[in-house]
Amino acid sequence: MAMEYESHNWVWDVLYYCPRLFSGLMLTAALLGLSTTYFGGIGLFPLSYVWSDSGVFHKNKCEKKHIRVYMDGCFDLMHYGHANALRQAKALGDELVVGVVSDEEIIANKGPPVLPMDERLALVSGLKWVDQVIANAPYAITEQFMNSLFNEHKIDYIIHGDDPCLLPDGSDAYALAKKAGRYKQIKRTEGVSSTDIVGRILSSLKDTEEGGHTTSTLSNGDLGERHRSQRGQISQFLLTSQRIVQFSNGKGPGPNARVVYIDGAFDLFHAGHVEILKKAKQLGDFLLVGIHTDHIVREHRGMPYPVMHVYERSLSVLACRFVDEVIIGAPWEITKDMITTFNISIVVHGTVAESNTLLPGETDPYSVPKRMDIFRFLESPKSLTTSCVAERIVTNHEAYMKRNAKKAEREKQYYEESSEPSLICIIFVTYFCFFPSFMRF
Ligand SMILES: *[C@@H]1O[C@H](CO)[C@@H](O)[C@H](O)[C@H]1NC(C)=O
């Protein structure tokens, strides 16, 4: 378990939610001849002991106001769609607990994940709306797991998107929670799917192989641009100012705040990004992140980058708990003007980064902050890069296609070998019992 933001002292929660009750108690205390200094001197410990012992607070409705909601998912490749779903889930309660499905369960249901458990945990824990994570959650909520959510994890509601989620036997995966009256629904988030991301990488690689085009449909930097995925679907992402507001923490740097600046592509937002952003934030009070334009990324990295366009990349970064502000479409070179405008105290860059080739005539983008002596290299905690993730995605996809082809081949053979209805029946039963993954694709 990566994080616990559990309340440290329930007394404070009670004081927060039940101010009237608290003043009532203070009044009672005063009537009994206790002064408030005496109260303060002794601390709240004995009081909490008395209260909890008398059992008043266990039944008190005030405490119940602290609503804990649960949502789960595989979170294999984090994108703004996941972030937005969790944002909506959080809005339905006070504390959001997120279950991250185990590697084994993903393998059994969909094939191997691109990101292993630890990386998926780091990504989910890094989201600003997530209060607690539960590692190795089951793929489908069983009755036993549901009970442990309600009893051990003190969950009030289980949240899921409004898309139907069926178990292999065709029943509703959330039927139990619904029956218990502890199910809430959010709108399924528009945007990219993991399949779409795979498609973008593959189609742009194909483009390069076939015609050697340097420009593709992948990313042209236009508003409302279209991405053609391999399956010919067109996914359109339209960024609205409202979405930016929802993702933003709405605060500027306070007086005397030390502003830290870090820039990059932040493409296919991964655990390495979360770690470096965390480290950068520790150097100051306010973390400003510059997200390079699609044009800049393409020029310096070549195809198929950027896989995610600048708005998608910006939202992913903005969803990270360590980030205070983003510059959507930051310049390549850090200028004196930028440093003054944003009152940047320190400029940092990770030691593990994608190799960017300098274009002819281009100088070191950090020469100004280096001259001002405000530049620092940050030792990257993880050696993960976007191209590592992209490579894994491609390898994974190839393995998946091979598995499917083999599976189809096997089934064809079975059909040809026997036309006996009973045997076909057996095959069907085995098929549906042991390959539930197939039904999900
Ligand atoms: C600029 O940042 C410094 C800290 O590096 C801070 O002391 C100063 O107050 C900031 N200036 C403004 C105008 O916010």
Automatic annotation (TrEMBL):
Keywords: Lipid biosynthesis, Lipid metabolism, Membrane, Nucleotidyltransferase, Phospholipid biosynthesis, Phospholipid metabolism, Transferase, Transmembrane, Transmembrane helix. It holds the Pfam family CTP_transf_like. It comes from the Eukaryota. Pathway: Lipid metabolism; Phospholipid metabolism; phosphatidylethanolamine biosynthesis; phosphatidylethanolamine from ethanolamine: step 2/3. Residues 207-226 are annotated as: Disordered. Its EC number is 2.7.7.14. One of its GO terms (biological process) is phosphatidylethanolamine biosynthetic process. Residues 70-199, 261-351 form the Cytidyltransferase-like domain. One of its GO terms (molecular function) is ethanolamine-phosphate cytidylyltransferase activity. It is an enzyme of class 2 (transferase). The chain crosses the membrane at residues 20-51. Signal peptide: none annotated. One of its GO terms (cellular component) is cytoplasm. SUPFAM superfamilies: Nucleotidylyl transferase. InterPro entries: CCT (IPR041723), Cyt_trans-like (IPR004821), Ect1/PCYT2 (IPR044608), Rossmann-like_a/b/a_fold (IPR014729). PANTHER family: ETHANOLAMINE-PHOSPHATE CYTIDYLYLTRANSFERASE. Belongs to the cytidylyltransferase family. This is ethanolamine-phosphate cytidylyltransferase.
